[in-house]
Amino acid sequence: xxxxxxxxxxxxxxxxxxxxxxxxxxxxxxxxxxxxxxxxxxxxxxxxxxxxxxxxxxxxxxxxxxxxxxxxxxxxxxxxxxxxxxxxxxxxxxxxxxxxxxxxxxxxxxxxxxxxxxxxxxxxxxxxxxxxxxxxxxxxxxxxxxxxxxxxxxxxxxxxxxxxxxxxxxxxxxxxxxxxxxxxxxxxxxxxxxxxxxxxxxxxxxxxxxxxxxxxxxxxxxxxxxxxxxxxxxxxxxxxxxxxxxxxxxxxxx
Length: 254
What we know:
Elements lengths: L4 H23 L1 H22 L2 H21 L5 H20 L7 H19 L4 H6 L8 H4 L2 H31 L2 H10 L3 H15 L7 H37 L1
């Protein structure tokens, strides 16, 4: 290995590490995935045992609230846990209103379908959703749209991956919503919670790890502000220097 190859490999390793960390931050990591599964797991387990919609729904909501409390006690970020609470709450409301336990899963399924369409539509529009999500995480905002074409290409591929994977998931779940019973739908949905998500995250990581490095627009703004301050300081100091120079000439003339 030559001295020229080593920095390149180190830079690639650092880029992949940053990409992995950013993906975990954006999507909640392992803990966030677990928190999305646990409430639904409690619902389908209790319903499978006693077929009681009210107990199943109340338990799922209580578990999701408990996860938020745990995060608050640990002073951890609660955005992923709160999103889980809202999802479970909508499911509980739907199921209670209709009296159909399968409707507990319907809001989440509709959300998945809407998200799949959002990934596809924004990609076709030239503004891939995954870029809008990860841009601020990488401190590049929307610079990838006009200044980093390789980065935009990676975001486009990743958004297609997310959209198609979520559509495939919907293609399995919606027929089951009509044909299967509540327990069957619930167990299939639990089984499909994490694997498609992991596949989409892995593909995103693969695409971004090979893409050009993000442009840190925040660092650019800080550099511009610092340069502007230095220009103002130099402009303010110039008259004093001129006055001192003129005073020196007067003393020499005298």
